[in-house]
Structures are given as structure tokens and as C-alpha cells.
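Slide 14.
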Amino acid sequence: MTDVTTDREARALAIAGHGTLDAALAAGAIPPRVDLTLSEAVVLGLLRQGVTRYVGIFGHGSTDVAEVLRVYQKHGVLRTYPVRNEVEAAHAATALRWVTGEQAAVITSIGPGALQALAGSLAAASDGIGVWHLYADETTQAEGPNMQEIPGDRQERFLRLCSEMGPAYTLHTPEALPEALRRGLNAVDHPHRARPFFLLLPINTQPGLLTRFALDSLPTGHPPPLGAALDAGRYDDAARTLLGADRVVVRVGGGARGAGPQIAELLDLVDGFAVTSPIALGTLPYAHPRNQGVGGSKGSISGNHAMENADLLLAIGSRAVCQSDMSRTGYPQVDRVININTDPDAAMHYARTLALVGDAAPTLDGLIGALRRLGAQPHGLDSAWARANTDAKVAWEAFKAKRYENPRLRDDVWQREVLTQPAVLRTVGDWARERDAVTFFDAGDVQANGFQANEDDRLGRTFTETGASYMGFATSALLSSALADRSFYAVAMTGDGSFTMNPQALIDGVQHGARGVVVLLDNRRQGAISSLQRAQYGTDYGTNDQVEVDYVAWAAAVGGVRALHGGYTEDELRAALDQAYAHDGVALIHVPVYFGEDPLGGFGSFGRWNVGSWVASTQELRKGMTI
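Slide 15: predicted structure.
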């Protein structure tokens, strides 16, 4: 047996010199069969899949993997980004994959750290983002309880727990690595239902030796997309159904994000109007005359008008999340559904459905072809349905404009006039578009008001984590600007409640060279829940506090962070944004914002939701639905 440590250095040098593992193998710089530890084999396997970044926290459960990463980073093959919270690590890796397509693996020790990262993986699992999660696990020798394991007497408890979130594999046997990596590749690179993959590394198998291991057995490649839905006459059936309807609404979900041109063409052919999910903003430019904006329990006047009055629903890549389809009461007049989805369960979600199971873009191409064969021609905006939706969009624009025209209101907490959330969101949104920045929205009223205010003209401007609605996501996502090869300026829109979930991202952002700004909208409460409580019960409870926090001083205490006050006018806020942008690093802008009963302070709600005091009426309406 060779000296594994010496050979590890040589392998790292060879890969650095040739650019990739495959190139080093092809050149003979690394022999096809080698002796190496399981930890190094994992790193090489992920390297072959394009994973060159690791973000997380090491502990006693991951010292062997850390040593491998140290050697490979020394030679420039990969890089590790130590952070101060595993939830933050999960969010940063998710944001990196979401924005740029680049991969970072989350790595933790055993026990609490793994559980933190597992909780953070909910965002990736909910939004369809593929991320590798590497967790240390208890030893396989059963010598007794391991520190930080899940207490109890059942085997593989972490595997059971992780498997509830997504596919998982325990490397109890080192030789199973190629199969584990193949399963992981199929999960994180799935073309339609990407998910986190949880690779559990028992403490004692990490340094275990694999002898004469065939490096070419490490899997590579990508799972192919499904392609267009099977025809068998279904396209013609769907086309006839669409042409026979009077009022077509098209729900644009996350699975439709690559099909904007096809959606625009189809809308004209069927005189349809689009309602977008928050995750799909920019798929169709907001200014498109057939884009009604967001719909749902926190939708828009125009989006909800289209949902309430349509007689046919064409759903594209949508999961029909509770708020988006108003707890399945969003389409009270619809009696037929055409559903395009790669997931048969999602495609058959509604009753009276004609399902087309396939990729959105090629399936829409087939449907457009069927429509044209049946004589469909582009419509103008002169039908009764078109005029009604156009009027609703005008009403929504006027509704927003009234709030923008009244950007300041007197607030009881701040004892002065402060900016409203609509004013802040419009100011920051315009500023970010001018600089081609990437904006992340945190959970809560910042997120909800944010997607209502959104006017994206293309995909990739804003990322709204509505799948899990995870507080602290936006600030953590700021770190992804440091991880990315394709650099971008990040804007994290967050509230005071969400920011305090993951404030350590400021420290890690400075440490790793992030560039962006946290815009902290402070209303001294969890505003989304306070508003919901007031709407349902007339008062809020347990969602605000009396603790004054100097967020500027807090941020300024972190060396390298530019801490600014956003002021009390739009001009002052824009000036602060310019100062933040001029800073080559991380900045934070604290903006006091209004909370209260004045309707000009927010964008309001226009739909239903099966929660709280609304349950009885929502469920009663649901009984009469035919889909």
C-alpha cells in the first residue's frame, strides 16, 4: 500500500496542473486505480460533478474530510468557506445554485450542526434547488453512544430523519460511494425536481481506506430532461378546450420559468391572461399587456380578478401552493383545467383535468402547433375578457401609484413620519434594476409586499424564497455573491425579525469577500403575522416588542461593514444606497418603516386562505368547487 498522504498531495497537484480530474486521468498524471481514504474519494467524486466549493462548519465529526479539503484548497483545486451558522450555509449554497447554477456543498459535523443545516435545506427542497449536504454521522462500530448523536436505540436515525426531507445515503460501507454519488447526482441535477441530497459520513468510515479504487467509477453526467408531453391526440384535445373557453387564465409556476416566449405566444392565441407565482417573476415581463401580476391570498387586484373570473385554467409548472391558489378556492368559476407539469401528481392536482406531463417549453410548442392547426390567430385586446383584465391592471397600477404618491406616514413607534414599505420597495427596486443587481427577499411582510410591488422585466432580477418562506434567507443569501464565479451585486431585502435570525452573515460576508447590501426594513415587529392577526381578530399578539435596537451600531461593530441609516425620505434612502454601492464589500442600511392601520402603509390582501378565523368560510366555498 502506498503512502496515502503523499499521494493525496500528488493528486491535488496533478488536478491543479491539468484543470480537472478527468484531464489528469487522461494525461496519466493520476493512475486509474489508487489507494485513498473515503473522505478523499468523496471530495474527488464531487469534484468530478463540478463541486469546487464547500460552505459550513467543521467539528469533531468532520476532521478527516476537513484535512482533505485543506490539501486540495492549498493547491487551488477547491475552496472552503467556514461560516458561523449551518442554516446560513444551507441558504448561501441554495442561493448560489439558484442565481448562477454553480454548486457549493454544505458540510457539517454531527448532531446539532447537521440538524441546523437540515432545517435550512427546507428552502432548497421547497423551491426545487439541488444542493449537496454532507453531514458527519455516528460510528458504525456500535461501541456505545456517540456524542451528539440522536438519542435512542434505533439504527441510522440521522438517515431516517434526513430521508424525510429528501433522498439520503449513509456511507456505512466505503465501497458504496459510487452508488451514493450516482443517487446524489440524480437528485441535485434533476432537470425538473432538483432537491437536496444528504450524504452521511460516519466518523469512523471517513478515514477508511479504499484500495485500488477505480477513479473512473465516480459518476458524472446529467439526468436528461423529460421533453415534450406525449401527444396521442392530447394536444388537439387541449387546443380545442382552450379555444372553446371564453375566459382563459394561465398560472405561471416555477416550472414555467424557461418558457416565457411560448407563454407570450399562447396567450395571444387563446386570448388568455397570465397570473404569476412569486417564484416565477420575470418569466413574462411585468409590462406585458397580458401579464396580470401575482395572484393568491397576497396577490394583486389584477391577478386575482383573472383568477376569480376565468372559466378555464391552464396551469404551467405550478404546485398549487396554498397561498397561490387561495387554499384551492382561487378559481371559483373554472370548470376545466389543462395542466402542464413534469410531475404526474402535480399535473393531476385538480379535478376535471387534461394533463400534459412534460417540460413546459417543448410541451407548449406542441400545444401552440395544435392551436394553429385548428385556425387560432393572435387576438387583440378588444374582447370583453381582455377589456376587463386590462381595466383590472389599470386599477392595480393606480392602487400602487397612490401608495407611491404618499411615501411617508406618521408612525406611533417611531413618533414621526417614516417611509412606508411600498415606498422603500419601489425605491430599492428601481435602484437595483439600474445597477443590474440581484435582489433577495426575506420571509414576512417584506417578502409579501415585495412580490406585490415587483415589476421585473426578465428572470434573474429577484429571488423570492416563497417555497419555505424561511426567515433569514435573504441575509444569508448575500454570502452567495462571495462564492460565485459569475460575480454579482446582491441586495438583501429583510425585516428586523428576519435579520436577527441570521445576522452573523455580515461577519461571514466580510470574511469571504461578499459584495452587497442588506436593506433592513424595521417596523419593530413580525409585520406579516401582526397584520394577519389584526385582519382576523382585530388585534395582534406576541408578534411585536418594545426593545429598541441600534442596527447601525450593530452593523458598524463588524469590521469591514459599511453601516448606514436610510433616512426618512426616498432621496435619503437612494443616497444611502449609492454610498453602500460605492463600498467594496458588505453594507447595511437601516430603514425605519411604518406599521399601522392606514391602508397606504402596504399593499393589502385580496384573496382567501384556509387559516384562523377564515377557515369556515374558505372551506365552505371549497365545497362548491368543481375542480
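Speaker note: The mean pLDDT is 94.
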